[in-house]
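Chapter summary example.
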Amino acid sequence: MTSAPASASAVPPALPVPRRAPSLWTAAVRIFDLSLARMLWSRGTIFMALLVGLPVVLALLVRGVQAIGGPAMRVDGQIMTGPTIFGFMVWWLYLRFIVPVLALYYGTALVADEVEDKTITYLFTRPIRRGAVLLGKFLAYFVCTVMVVLPSLMIVYFLMGLSGATLAGTFPGLLKDLGLIILGLLAYGGLFAWVGAQFKRPLVIGLVFVFGFEQVALIIPGYIRHLTVSYYLQSLVPHAVMGEGVLSLLQSLVQQKASLATSLVMLVSIGVIFVFLAMRVIARREYVLEQ
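The structure predicted for these 291 residues follows.
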């Protein structure tokens, strides 16, 4: 006689443990890894190389004229020495043109390019916070532009003859110039990252700000210049372009300066605050891609 089989206790299958979303910084680092190589090898790399190559070409021309015994460059009747030419190029080429243009080009494209390529929805389907997407792409922009601009500045530095016996006297100024460029890329980049996330025509708005509003605000008496990035940058310019008296027009424009502490705090704050605001915009906005 067969006994009835014992009823085995039914054990429910183990449910898969839900995968926790990575933290903001972990997700931002992942986006940074994906974006950096893409940014370095994008079509904008040619534009960036041409832009940072302009000061190098000008420095080569100056050295060529000097090598063949050409006439010395003079401003206000005074000979422009190597440190003066270098300082002039740092202020007018790098800080007033190259840094804002690079920040404008890449900062406004952090979100706009993803929308244009219709890839932003794929980024948002990942289990990460939306703000991490913008933060990671901003870090990629920052590292990419610093890696390209700083070697250009170093080449110009040595082409202007600021080495050898004069290295000890000019190298501290070079370090300050490097810091200024980094601060400029941070402040302008954060500002234009927010503009790119907030507005539909960010490039136009950025161009008006850099080449319109800032240029006018710096020469108008009053407090309107405090609303510009270049005002705080020019307050930190340390070298011969500010001190040898050969550029009286520039000196007259920058005779009202912010303090060192105020300029540093404002430049860092502008970059950080506007990156945070851009993260909030991208986290709350619904992106409907046009067919």
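To summarize the output: Residues 24-284 form one domain.
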